[in-house]
Amino acid sequence: MQQKILGNTGITVSTLGLGTVKFGRNQGVKYPQAFEIPDDQHLMQLLHTARDLGINLIDTAPAYGNSETRLGTLLSGDRKNWVIVSKVGEEFVNGDSLYDFTPEHAEKSIKRSLKRLNTDYIDIVLVHSDGNDVYNIQNFGILDFLSELKKQGLIRAFGMSTKTVEGGILAIQQSDVVMVTYNPIETAEQPVIAKAFELNKGVLIKKALASGHIQKIPGSDPVKTSLTFILQEPGVSSIILGTLDPTHLAHNVACVTG
Ligand SMILES: NC(=O)c1ccc[n+]([C@@H]2O[C@H](COP(=O)([O-])OP(=O)(O)OC[C@H]3O[C@@H](n4cnc5c(N)ncnc54)[C@H](OP(=O)(O)O)[C@@H]3O)[C@@H](O)[C@H]2O)c1
Fold this sequence. Notes:
Blueprint: E1 3-5, E2 12-14, E3 16-19, H1 21-24, H2 40-52, E4 57-59, H3 67-74, E5 83-88, E6 90-93, E7 96-99, H4 103-117, E8 122-128, H5 133-140, H6 142-152, E9 155-161, H7 165-173, E10 177-181, H8 190-198, E11 202-206, H9 222-231, E12 238-242, H10 246-257
Parallel strand pairs: 3-4, 3-12, 4-5, 5-8, 8-9, 9-10, 10-11, 11-12
Antiparallel strand pairs: 1-2, 6-7
Helix pairs in contact: 3-4, 5-7, 7-8, 9-10
The chain binds NADP nicotinamide-adenine-dinucleotide phosphate (NAP).
């Protein structure tokens, strides 16, 4: 699989990354079907398959149930072969999302993520926005704080997972990476991708398959339609696709390599 440098970070990422919401959380999610969280053996096999297919990027968050903790165990011994993205700002507690964008919370959260992930650095940390992107950037000093952590070497790059065009553009002007929703039926955030490209910053795509509602995407193979469409944007660094299914994983990779 092709790899790209993530903006100006010097970090090399594969065209597809693996999303891990479903590794640790099956409540309060918008997937079309309910699902069981798989056991370690299934996930270990999935991670090996992903590696064998050329994927080196994995996306997690404290808000994804025990996803970080599971990855800490599953990736031990193989840590250096993965680029790990985690987040700050959102917690998922007793079925509800809670948000805190203060540097104090971010500091505690990152220390906890390092422990859970069983590592001494996180490659990329993103602010896990609640949608009030501009307010959160302007009122908490969170991006400045992450910039400090980068200088200290605890993280290699930072940015924000945004939900608005204004917030995405503001975030990418002040950080290394932005994560945006983009697919053939959700194109509103394209200007953020274009701005990031202009500034030589990294772009990660979330919800490339409309969170599994693929029947909404046109074409006889909606996965191929969507991935081809997304990769026409030159600013896209990597597409973070969520799956628990090795057959889906192989098909997703075939769509970007075939
Ligand atoms: N920062 C944020 O705010 C944020 C928000 C949402 C997501 N994310 C990140 O982005 C990742 C991806 O987002 P997402 O999970 O919401 O959406 P997605 O990647 O668009 O869709 C994932 C869904 O698509 C299904 N799927 C995957 N490949 C398929 C295929 N070949 N054929 C049919 N169905 C397929 C998966 O089911 P199977 O398991 O059955 O394959 C899963 O239910 C997440 O895991 C997470 O890491 C970040």
